Write a sequence for this structure.
């Protein structure tokens, strides 16, 4: 999910909710009874209040079992990275924190978090995690020394409004990018305030994800080893394909350039203002909260161009949330117990359903939906059609710089500018310069 690096942050207003959770257990040691862990959880639910409702009983159960109290702060994604950076620089903050798994390589390189390979037994072993989920949060070549472990799994898919498809005479979802665009044009009628596709055009985290995926479908690599290579023709044409949705193809409402929250396009889908949205599987929670039922929407994989070779048929990266322990913690033993509990089979089964997330444990079955077809789309994408975001120390800088470059280009298009391939290459070149300076 959303994702930046230790040094580069674009923070918006903080959104936090603090909840004190306490309890005791007759079979807990006195040292545990006297410990309160500070835990920063990322906003996974439909609101911060929803996270409080979901997590409170789960954390109270941990306190009852161990005697260890947990003080929970739920933080919105736009502010989480900034708060983590402050905690790192000051050595003051929580004991345990959720991070976007793509932040993992940068934090691993920084030494900010505990090397969990040194405490594998204490968290129930590293071999309990699905390999794809575990490896996604580490630097290439250092996956055997994770500084965070998987908590929630996510993958991208193409959500579509079945009623709008039916009204347009479209009987099946698109299987190629060309069909995707053609369907989107059929579903676009600005006079009715209806567009084929909705995007969060002001969200640089969403924009870098789609820039990465469309480039990956072209066989592109953003790094040669640790060296950024953002300006290749394959990357430029991938980004162009994404930008064409709002530019040349005109299937995205120009007003979407102002949307900076990933749930906003989903509201447009639920309200019939948009027919399709590219989103992660936890979108189910937002759609259901907006009054849709599971039968009102369908999901298919992110389409790729018709001539894409099999090895480049990428529809997602293995997204998700990891959990980590700050190196400065004074309560390492208790923090390890908490990580073990949060990644246990029982807790995972409890949280996957309300958060609509994919399981990160081996052989666990998805419980986020009762729709077997939807579950298959996302599990197939996660396990068979995924490509990991760059596993380098500057990954967070890459996401910030490239994402903001694409965001600015979308804003230009929304204001009527014709963005050419040379404009895209210049923006990506500037982003590369930023990353090289930061690195």
């Amino acid at each position: 999910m959303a994702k930046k690096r230790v040094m580069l942050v674009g923070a918006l207003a903080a959104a936090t909710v603090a909840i004190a959770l306490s309890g005791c257990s007759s079979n807990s040691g006195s040292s545990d009874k006297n410990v309160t862990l500070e835990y920063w959880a990322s906003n996974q639910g439909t609101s911060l209040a929803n996270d409080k409702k979901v997590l409170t009983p789960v954390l109270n159960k941990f306190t009852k079992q161990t005697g260890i109290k947990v003080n929970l702060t739920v933080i919105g994604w736009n502010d989480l990275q900034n708060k983590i950076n402050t905690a790192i620089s000051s050595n003051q903050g929580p004991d345990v924190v959720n991070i976007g798994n793509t932040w993992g390589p940068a934090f691993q390189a920084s030494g900010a978090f505990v090397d969990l390979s040194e405490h594998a037994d204490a968290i129930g072993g590293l071999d309990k995690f699905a390999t794809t989920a575990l490896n996604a949060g580490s630097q290439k070549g250092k996956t055997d020394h994770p500084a965070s472990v998987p908590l929630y799994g996510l993958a991208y898919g193409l959500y579509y409004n079945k009623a709008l498809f039916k009204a347009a005479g479209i009987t099946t979802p698109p299987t190629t990018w060309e069909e995707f665009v053609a369907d989107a044009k059929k579903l676009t009628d600005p006079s009715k305030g209806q567009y084929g596709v909705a995007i969060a055009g002001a969200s640089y985290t969403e924009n870098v994800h789609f820039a990465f995926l469309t480039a990956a479908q072209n066989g592109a690599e953003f790094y040669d080893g640790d060296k950024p290579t953002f300006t290749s023709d394959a990357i430029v044409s991938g980004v162009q394909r994404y930008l064409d949705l709002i530019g040349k193809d005109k299937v995205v409402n120009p007003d979407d350039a102002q949307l900076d929250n990933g749930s906003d396009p989903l509201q447009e889908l639920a309200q019939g203002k948009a027919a399709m949205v590219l989103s992660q599987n936890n979108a189910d929670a937002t759609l259901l909260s907006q009054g849709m039922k599971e039968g009102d929407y369908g999901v298919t994989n992110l389409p790729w161009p018709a001539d894409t070779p099999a090895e480049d048929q990428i529809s997602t990266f293995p997204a998700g949330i990891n959990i980590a322990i700050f190196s400065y913690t004074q309560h390492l033993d208790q923090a390890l117990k908490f990580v073990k509990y949060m990644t246990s089979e029982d807790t995972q089964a409890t949280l996957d359903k309300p958060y609509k997330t994919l399981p990160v444990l081996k052989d666990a079955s998805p419980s986020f939906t009762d729709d077997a077809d939807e579950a298959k789309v996302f599990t197939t994408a996660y396990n068979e059609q995924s490509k990991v975001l760059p596993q380098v120390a500057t990954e967070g800088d890459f996401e910030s710089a490239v994402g903001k470059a694409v965001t600015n280009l979308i804003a230009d298009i929304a204001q009527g500018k014709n963005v050419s391939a040379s404009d895209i290459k210049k923006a990506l070149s500037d982003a590369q310069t930023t990353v090289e300076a930061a690195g």
